Request: fold
Amino acid sequence: MIHTEIGQSRLLPFSQRLRNLPWWAFLAALLGILFAWHIHTDRTYNEIFQAILNGVGITLYVTAIAYSAALVLGLLLAFARLSKNVIVYQLATFYVEIIRGVPALVLLLYIAFVGFELYVNALNALGAWLLERGWLLGLGEHFNTLRLRDIDNLTRAIVALVIAYSPFVSEIFRAGIESIPRGQMEAARSLGMNYWQAMRYVILPQAIRNVLPPLGNDLIAMLKDSSLVSILGVRDITGEGRVGAARTFRTFETYNIMAFLYLSMTLALSGVVRWLERRTGQGRH
Reply:
């Protein structure tokens, strides 16, 4: 009887470890390996995969550039939302609330075809004004002759994603900064630091550590939403897949591979986010 109880007590931790294993990840990895093997051995799948693979670099490029810029703009918006200046606060709040209320696809089309047209018209007017007064003739000539078609769709798509995601990033930063006790700022100011020094050396390092997991989740969301840029003709994964499906009529194989590529990248990023959560302790409850 005693030996039985001892054996059960030894088995309990092992069964607990088995229960906590990420079995879903093992299943997903097994299915991924099987599908990758099928792509390698099936000629049709292999040809489609090679064609779509050309868009992976564009997808990663768009995501990296747009998210990096969104981080910078989002941090500036967070400072503006925390500002005691009424005008700065109201303008930042207006921007955040308006942009967050518009769907990403609508915002992408609006910025690409309306926002950039207004931008080009403004530069044309500025160029004409400079030429009339004989100031900065080279710059004035460049602005005056600029046309909307001179701005490529990739640039428009990246700017649109930056504008679409910066309000969400700003709210993450704002919540992270506000989560730091006020005593931290008061202690830093009592040591002789000004506001920006205290923010840079005391508040922000702690706040960024707290918001790394949600920022990682936003990066994953942007990677998926980068597929929207294909509507502007950008040859990312989705763009290459749409062109390939229209040319070969192999829609089943094409969209299977597109889903596989996006799923592989998002699962890899999710693993990195979970690793960051464990490193920073934010994943513990």
